[in-house]
Amino acid sequence: MAEVVQARPPDTPIEIWFADEARVGQKNTISRRWALRGSRPRAPRDQRTRSAYIFGAICPREGKAAGLVLPFCNTAAMELHLVEIAQAVAPGAHAVLIVDQAGWHTSPKLVVPDTITILPLPPRSPELNPVENVWTRGRWM
Questions:
Q1: Could you tell me which CATH class the domain 12-19+50-136 is placed in?
Q2: Distances (CA, A) of 134 to 101, 114, 115
Q3: Domain edges within the chain
Q4: pLDDT tens for residues 51-71?
């Protein structure tokens, strides 16, 4: 982060953002039925699997958030999310976006807006990203 501060004029406000994504959707299980031994009753079940990905980012100090719901999760989707975050950054400010090390966050093909610098977290440390608390990840079930 020292590079970000040094690369900008000293009076540039810095906003700290945290981002992550979550998959939501239908994930089927095997159908089971009670039946007489030796019989094989039909057990129709919806076998489709449909998902969406929620991209979310927060800036707790400023009370800001930015998010998208997309049908895929890749570098192109991350670029769309970065554009959404850049629109929420205050004019004249610079955002430091803290993310995990997912491939689409650290891809050399990722086009990052000039008002954002990506700062990856150490590996296997989701507890350091407060936006992880936003996703319930099925704990409510």
A1: alpha beta
A2: 18, 27, 25
A3: 12-19+50-136
A4: 899 999 999 999 999 999 999
